[in-house]
Amino acid sequence: MKPLKILLNGVWYENPIFVQAIALCPALAVSTTAVNAIGMGLATAVVLIFSNITISLVHRFIPNQVRIPCFIVIIAGFVTVLQFGLEAYFPALNHSLGIFIPLIVVNCILLARAESFAASNNALWSAADGLCTGLGFTAALTFIGAIREFFGSGTFFGVSVLPAWFPLTVIIILPPGAFFTLGALIAGMNVIKKRRRA
Amino acid sequence: MEFILVFTGAALVNNFVLTRFLGICPFLGVSKRVETAFGMGLAVTFVMALSSAATHLMYRYVLIPLNAEYLFNIAFVLIIAVLVQLVEMYMKKASPSLYKALGIFLPLITTNCAVLGVTLINKDTHAHEFLISVVHGVGAAVGFTLAIVLFAGIREKIEYSNIPAAFKGLPIALIASGLMSIAFLGFAGLIMP
What we know:
The structure holds two protein chains of two kinds.
Chain A: H1 2-13, H2 24-29, H3 34-58, H4 67-89, H5 91-97, H6 108-116, H7 123-153, E1 155-156, E2 159-160, H8 175-197
Antiparallel strand pairs in A: 1-2
Chain B: H1 2-13, H2 24-29, H3 34-63, H4 72-94, H5 96-102, H6 113-125, H7 130-158, H8 170-185
Helix pairs in contact in B: 1-7, 3-4, 3-6, 3-7, 4-5, 4-6, 6-7, 7-8
């Protein structure tokens, strides 16, 4: 049942944002709209899949002491390729994500998966792990983005859903709102977890 | 005048942690005690100032003449990794207690997005001004230190207060940083066009 375990771990039990609380910078910064959040999540997922595959293939040739710098260079290579792709095919998305695309290099998720999974599993499983962790990250980001977009701009994936008289909470799409939304969501997760255990 | 503008802009108005969301990991991770937070702030300040200078020189005098600007990301990350290694070696000798207190977060400055972030912003906005790049780096680092030290002070108080069970730990820390972020929004009035 390894595939199922990888999927559940990536999306739920070890969700990068809500459970491990890593890679919070992009989660807070680009979650002002759901579309941005999906773009950021998928971009990270693509890099994660390729870096996981590459690292699982080459890690046995890398001396242990210098593995972290090597992993970072591999990741940086894929991020550079990704940025070229985004510039060519999705210039608007590339513009709105700004420096958070090159910053995927220092996203803790990528190094964490390289260290804890790709360096001890074969290429196929590593690709699956990259895909599932990437999906978990994308799902979490989109969830935060959809909530902030709904309360802050009254839209859902860019479509206006709230009537004009509904008071918008502008603070939610400003920087403080990112902290509040994520704090409230993690608190909510804690409540759910506690109920399950009881 | 321009230096002051860039400095306050980076430190207060566009605070790296609370407005730009760069460097959230150490901000939440090393902010349990004021002294450790201050030490972390100093280490980051040092790395940021040096890497702002080094990446600027690298970009302007190596990458651009070679028509290899697209390699900026890889080059910057490597420069930062080397600098962090130097700081780590120095701190191990000079201040072993601080070295122990920072623990895993010291090598993790390499993957601190505030450091790479400041060099990327320098590349995009101050590509032709060496001194401005450095001032921007120092300003950003001072802003980071200010935010993390203030936040550590708040967290030391939170330790002893009675908060709902679900909010214990990370959630209350996020809510507190949200409130700090609101306070820092007030600085937006400092620089008006």
